[in-house]
Request: fold
Amino acid sequence: MAPKMKFSEGEKVLCFHGPLIYEAKCLKSSVTKDKHVRYLIHYAGWNKNWDEWVPESRVLKYNEANVQRQKEVQRAHSAQPVKTKKTTAKGRKSETATGTTPAREESRASTPAGKDVETPTAPAKATKTQSKDTPADSGSDQPKKKRGRLDLSIESEEQYLAKVEVKIKIPEELKVWLVDDWDVITRQQKLAILPAKLTVEQIVDNYLAFKKSSKSHNSAKESVLVDITEGIKEYFNATLGSQLLYKFERPQYSEILQEYPDTPMAQIYGSIHLLRLFAKMGPMLAYTALDEKSLQHVLTHIQDFLKYMVTNRATLFNLQDYGNATPEYHRKVQ
Reply:
């Protein structure tokens, strides 16, 4: 006898992702061979490429009690301090408690040296907070497949349950900038000067132009590179507001959205926020439906992009790109 479905197709629901709860819509339902119910979930305000199959245990009825539960979980998670390890100039580690932004437990980016460099706390997948830089919902059930592109497509429950950790190795030369960035923002309480002198979009386009100038470049490689670089921009625009900012930066982000309502954030923010994205992208990629070969292909390109950033770090990173926050701004943060 088939199990009874608790939720109907088209029903507005709430859905867990990590420790947080998000507004969503049930698109489809099915029963696995071992009689487990699963639902195809679309998160409100997000592109269909973020849709995923989830077990029934993650879905909640949309009612007043559960909406209140959602708010309480969000508040509790936001108030939870995270101890982070900061590497000093002499290689010693000191622990500092910092407040986190609403998100999931992956608060640090693993590095090949076994050290942890903290980046803004974020979920493995983008927090489903609707904002002006969120990708528009195309309204279709099935996502369009793209060649090795950094898009998310629908995954099966078997894929969901068999997730493996995906790591992106941040080069040592760039990890020091993540540490300095953490210190400048959270301890010195400065802000990146925006719009950036060299924006994410310009950096990505410059990388593409650099690869095109290579003697080994051909039309087949160009097609893949365009997909990869456009995917990086899309990821950045979709995740900046919910995953890549420290608490101290959030009022600035709100001001930017008001001042540039129709401008993609990749045309406003710069290199350090792009580097934060790469430090977070491993867990994000774990939630794509790419097969192992395609995933390794994407990772190879990302590592090559990081190598490009290492080569050009003198141009990309400068402590002069930060400025002091005004007293009025400090009052907004409190």
User: Anything to note?
Assistant: The longest strand covers residues 20-31. The radius of gyration is 20 Å.
